Amino acid sequence: MRIVAGLLIILGCAATPGHLGAQSAAKKVRLGIQSNNIGFLPFHLAYHKGYYREQGIELETIFMATQAVNTAFLRGEIDYSAAINGVIQGIVRGNAAKILACAVDRPLISLIARKEIRAAADLKGRKIGGSTPGGTASLMADAALKHLGLQAGRDMTIVALRDNRVAALESGIVDAALRALYFVLEPRNRDEVTNIVMKQWRLTDQRIATEMLRQFYRGMARDLMAKPEGMQLMIDLVREDSKVSQPFTTAQVVDYSFVEKARRELSTGR
Question: What is the pLDDT of residues 112-165, one digit of tens each?
Fold first, then answer.
């Protein structure tokens, strides 16, 4: 996880004259995150392990809705955004930005439903809880329904929700919902990482933390670079949702050169 802190320090050096290592005060960096999803685990691990402080970074992580992250990022009120789909949305709408790294190469989201819904056909005429407009859960709901041969608006309704999708499902407000899995990692580090997950997500059951790690491991981008086909799919989903007809390639949206530089510098320093 040092590469996450290393990436931020390189970006800070690129934006600020001089070398942070020679500065007496830590560089303050504000990072916007739209949810407490397990997919953001590398940022939290680097924080709890002290890697940011080690690199001269005083990181402030701010949790807010996707659109709030987007607005704050475009206004310069935060330095970096972890809302990938929000960054893509800004790019396809003409804003200058780039995706620099990806912790996972697929959204860690599942479609969960009430127990009486046992097949895709049972979703017809139902209400499905998504996220705020343009959010990952809403985009994934639309993609998942198309995969199942269904169409939002025609066959069922997508209800815009934020962090209360499980409560809405349990109360009957919606019949199904897209939900982040709440539920590298070298074996020798597993216990320490599990303890950090329990601390960050305030868990008391170690089995839940273990399952969260298992799900994260399934989608983890080991080199902080998402697969091109997965990134292109997300770009197309966001572009279509934003009513932008002009096609965009991954090269127009992603710049992994900073990750590559961070990897080189970390390797040199060992």
Answer: 888 899 888 898 999 988 877 667 777 877 888 888 888 888 898 888 876 677
Question: What's the pLDDT score for residue 10?
Answer: 39
Those residues whose C-beta lies under 8 Å from the C-beta of residue 34, and which sit 6 or more positions away, are 63, 64, 65, 66, 68, 69, 82, 83, 86, 135
| CA atoms of 1 and 66, how far apart (whole Å) | 24
Kindly state the percentage of the chain with pLDDT values over 90.
Answer: 18
Q: For the chain, what is the largest distance between any 2 Cα atoms, rounded to a whole number of angstroms? A: 62
Q: What is the DSSP secondary-structure string of 22-58?
A: G-SSPEEEEEEES---GGGHHHHHHHHTTHHHHTTEE
Domains, the chain, in order of start with CATH, read 2-106+223-268 (3.40.190), 109-180 (3.40.190.10)
Compute CA 269 distance to the chain's CA centroid, rounded to the nearest angstrom: 29
Confirm if 4 and 46 have CB atoms less than 8 A apart: yes
Average pLDDT of the residues in 235-252: 93
Name the pTM for this structure.
0.67
